[in-house]
Each structure stands twice: as structure tokens, then as C-alpha cells.
Amino acid sequence: MGGDRGPAAVVAGIAESAEKNPDIHFIVHGPRAEIEQLIARRSGLAARCDIRDAAGVVTMDDKPSQVLRKGEGTSMWSAVESVRLGEATVAVSCGNTGALMALSMLRLRKLPGVNRPAIACLWPSRNPQGFNVMLDCGADIRADAQDLVTYALMGTSYARNGLGLARPRVGLLNVGTEEHKGRPEMRQAHELMPATAEAANFDYVGFVEGGDLPSDRVDVIVTDGFTGNVALKTGEGTAKLVGDFLKEAFGKSILSKFAALLALNSLKRLQKRIDPRRVNGGVFLGLNGTVVKSHGSADSTGISAAIKLAFQLAQSGFQDRLAARVAQTAAQAAALNTTRNENQDHSEGTS
Amino acid sequence: MGGDRGPAAVVAGIAESAEKNPDIHFIVHGPRAEIEQLIARRSGLAARCDIRDAAGVVTMDDKPSQVLRKGEGTSMWSAVESVRLGEATVAVSCGNTGALMALSMLRLRKLPGVNRPAIACLWPSRNPQGFNVMLDCGADIRADAQDLVTYALMGTSYARNGLGLARPRVGLLNVGTEEHKGRPEMRQAHELMPATAEAANFDYVGFVEGGDLPSDRVDVIVTDGFTGNVALKTGEGTAKLVGDFLKEAFGKSILSKFAALLALNSLKRLQKRIDPRRVNGGVFLGLNGTVVKSHGSADSTGISAAIKLAFQLAQSGFQDRLAARVAQTAAQAAALNTTRNENQDHSEGTS
């Protein structure tokens, strides 16, 4: 209910997803009468949806702390609750990010071994898989060295299950690639990373810079939620600026308009590659349950993309694999700490 | 000497600038024989250039601390020295950023009232002037509340003298526009900003997000050097990605290649608007002397753009105006602190 375009856009996105994929079942949260009416307008959709009546709405202006105290009865609370109770495998929301994260932490609780949960987003890239993973995109404005290492574990789990990469390459976002660059917690994480990479079956490529976010030398980019959020919005803003300039350039003369007409397919292909709606969906990692945050302003195409991502993760058994991976590595780290000078064999799973 | 493309690219850039602008005189620093030979190849350039013999080179891998100890005799040291001695109005370098900033701080010293100098860069924007100013782009990975306020003063001085804006609008980069968002030093700077804006004759628009960097609701974006550096490189990387995708899209079929040919002027116009070489030049602010840092990999076009920027700033008397503005505001702040509860009239200059 709390997205910028209201429940009509959400139901339209559900309808798109339902049509494309017969295996998804939906639990829709909001005021029953309003939701029923919206669903009834789409032929065949009612049979695919359960409705959970929830009269309240978390608005974009509500502070997370308010929502924690008074949020029961809202559609957001109800959606998270359906994951907690095991009725839903994944929750998808277009609402207030801070409130959704706070509610998810309160109700789903953090996974053992996770201090700070993170939001992972997809970034269009030059890699064969077409996307890189970046986290944290804004769950928490701080992250210490151990958090950054945990982000690497969670991000590689996501890359394995969401993007099908067997051995993801991880980079730490910094202002330079030299060892002495960056804040103390980054240099410390940089030192911890090789051992974790070996134990958890990923490659650590070292420090990367902002220009590497779309590069093909890395699959998972780890950073704190402040930097990640600024980078994400800067990237989106830049892509939009270039797209707008492109439109202006092609609208300038009759000749260029004609050229644009001829190049329509090429331009559409380009637009598809950089369309932020296609990569819609920040995934909350590190909780006992998966939550996908769609852009607040997402239209039906964007919402359908977020649902598709949620479905993929649900089908891959991502949640259990990630939990096992983090718990295993946390246990290994603890064991390593107590017997630091002995040699140890680490079993390597596939999660 | 320390740029990625060596002295040939620098001399080529000097030649471009010399041809476009008869009012610039150059002092060129490096091994005399090599530099003389490069300059002699360009007709008429020798008469426009003085050469300062400097055998040493600061490489991209040199640590700033090493350069401070052993950098005397390098071309970088010599270039900064020529500003210190008043022989040059501005220094331009393509070399190691960290070393250049450390050397500039050591030799030129910080302006009274400045704790942390900053690097300001230009960002292609939707504003009539075509660019926004962002600082700090990487001089220092930290910034406290008072530093951020000083960045606002220095950035507005730059926007007045470099972009011709009478009353620049300043925004603080954050992860949201709400008052409770962000790190403590940002919330504190947010509180200090309105009074500073009034005293220093700029508009404070509040918190802005990464997506606002190219926006027309702000002219100067203030942030710490870590975030600024990541944002800058993310923006450049994204623009390059979209540009490459565009090229690929137009190279796909014969029809689209033909379309690209027809749209050549439009595409060139677009390329010009987003060409990072055109906005080449990070300006070091807060020192007793102006230093312009060109991209390490700049070609002659990029170097010429950096020289043009340096020339503009030199002609506008920017250095003295900025110094006066910072000193005046520092004095006002001190006076305000000692007589906090009295009413005071603040004189408003035009610097």
C-alpha cells in the first residue's frame, strides 16, 4: 500500500507476473475491499491470490521507530508476518525502505552470525551474467570490518543462487586499489578477506573503485550502506541523465529524428540494458526470511521484475543456503580464533 | 612527467591551449632536454614556454609520504614551487593525486580558516551552466561538520568565479533528504549551514541524494572525500558503460549502422555533453595557491580543458576571493561564538 503509485500499480505488476509464470501464488496485503476490487478487474487473477486484510499504511514519511511501535495492522507488517509464519517464501514491498528494514529485523530477526543485515542490489555490468551484485545499498550507514566480511559471504551466496555463478569474485569498494588507501575498517576487512574467501569458496580480487561497479573483473562489490546508497543513486542518476541527453540529441533535427526511427530497435535494446526497472529489487540479506524491496516509484514492469527476482530466490532455496553458509563460516572463524596457530581443514559446501 | 601518457600528451595539450588562447604563458617542468625537444616540434610554442629543469618524476605508485621526504627535484615539486614563488598563477598536473595534494599542502600551506583542503570537480548537469560543482572528490577521506561547512564556502566561491553563478545553491550529500538521516557530522553540518548561507550569500537547499548530482535544484554538492571519490568514479563508470552499450547497439545491424551515420551529429553532440575530458580538472581548494589536477590518463584534449579551467580561475582572481571569503566567514564564526546571544550585522562581500 505504501508505494508511490499505490496498490493499482502493485496489482498490475502481480498480474504481469501471474501471466508470465503459472507457478507463483500471491498473498496480497491491504484493505480487503480495495484490493479485491483491483484484483477482480484482472481476469483469472483472483484464483491466484489470497488477500490478508490490513487497513493501515506505512507512508514514505513515517520514521522506522514509529512503525516499530505502531505498525501492527499495516500492510507492510502483515507482509513481513506472512514470511515469519512460513506462509510466504518471500515478501515484496514498494514501501518505505527504512521502515521495511526495521520491521523485518524486528519480526524476522537476524541470522546467527550476522551483526548488520544488508540490502543487495543488482548493477548492470559488462559480465556475461549482465549484472553485478553490490551490498550494502543502504540497510545501515555503518559497517565495521567483520560486517564487510559477512557482506562478502552473503553477497556471494546471492550471486550463486540469483545469478548462477559457481565461484563469484568479490571486491571491496575503496578510493583506490593500493593497500594503504581507505578507512581503517576497510584495510582491516582487506586483511581478513583472503582467509574467508578460501573457506567460503569465492575469489577475493582486492580493493575496487567506483568505476569498477559495472566492470567484468568483479561480481560482488562490498561496501558500507552509506557509500553503497550514494553510489547506487549516483549510478541511476547518471544513466538517466545520459538517456535524457540521448533523447534530446535525437529530437534535435528532422534528420536525427529519422535516424532515431531507423535505429529504433537498437535504441530499444540499449534502453532495455540500462532500464532500472529491469534490475528492480533490493534483497534484504542476513535475516530469517527473504524480503525484496522494490523501488517506491516502480510501475507494473518494475514490480513484476521484483516479483521475478523473489521467485527465483525462493525456488533456489537461497534462504537456507545463505543461512548455512554464514553459520558455517562464523563457526569456522570462531574455531580459527581459538586454535589460531594450528592447521585446520575446512570443509567446503556449495551454498 | 607523471601522467599515464607521459610528457608528449602534456605538451600536445599545451600546444592546443596555446593555439586557442594567446594570453596564456606556460612554465613547463621536467628534464630540460626531453621537454625542449617536445616543444620544439610545435611551431611557435617555444616562445610561449619557459622550461624549469627537473630530472625526477613522481610515479603513480609513489606514496605521498615518500614524495614529501624525497620529492624535491621532481617535476611535480617544481610545478608547485612555481606557484608558491608567485611565478605561476596556477599549477596543472596529471600526476599522482595523493602526492600532489600532500606536496601542495606542504609547500603552499592551508589557508587561514581551512582545516581540510578539498578537491572540487565539475559534474555534467541539467542546470543552465551545464555543470554542477562537487567537493570533496578525494583530498581527504574524512570530513567533520565544520569541514563540510568550509567546503560549502569554497565550493560557492568556485561556482561564482568558475561558473559565473551569483548566488549558488548548496546541498549536502546524504542517503535521504529527511533531517534524521545520515551520519552525525552530516546532521550537525545541516544545522550549521543556514547561518553560514546567510552570512556568505548562498542558498542552502538541505540534504540531497546521489541522484541529485546532475540535477537542476542544486549547484554545489558538499560531501566527504571518500563518498565524493566513489560517487565521481561511479558516475564516470556509468556514463562510460552507457556510451559503450550505445556503440554496441548501433553496431548491431546494417540498418542501425546506417542510422548511426544519419545521426552522427546528434551522437557527437551527446558525446560532447558527457565527454569526461571536457570536465577534466579537479581544483584543489583551501591552499595558498591554486592547483588543478588533471586525470592521470588525460589526452591532449583533456589536458587542454584542465589548462582552460586553470586560466579561467587565474583571470577571475579566484584565489584571493576565496581566501577573503573563508577568512571573513571564519572571523564571523569566531565573533558569533564569543557574542552568541547578541545581534550582529554581517557585511556581505561578493567573493
UniProtKB/TrEMBL annotation, chains A, B:
InterPro entries assigned: FA_synthesis (IPR003664), Phospholipid_synth_PlsX-like (IPR012281)
Reaction(s) catalysed by this chain, per the record, are:
a fatty acyl-[ACP] + phosphate = an acyl phosphate + holo-[ACP]
What keywords would UniProt list here? Acyltransferase, Cytoplasm, Lipid biosynthesis, Lipid metabolism, Phospholipid biosynthesis, Phospholipid metabolism, Transferase
Q: Subcellular location, in the record's words?
A: Cytoplasm
One MF term in the entry's GO annotations = phosphate:acyl-[acyl carrier protein] acyltransferase activity
The answer to whether keyword Acyltransferase applies is yes
Pathway stated in the Swiss-Prot or TrEMBL entry: Lipid metabolism; phospholipid metabolism
Q: Which HAMAP family match?
A: PlsX
On assembly, the entry states: Homodimer. Probably interacts with PlsY.
The protein, known as = Phosphate acyltransferase
Species of the source: Paracoccus mangrovi
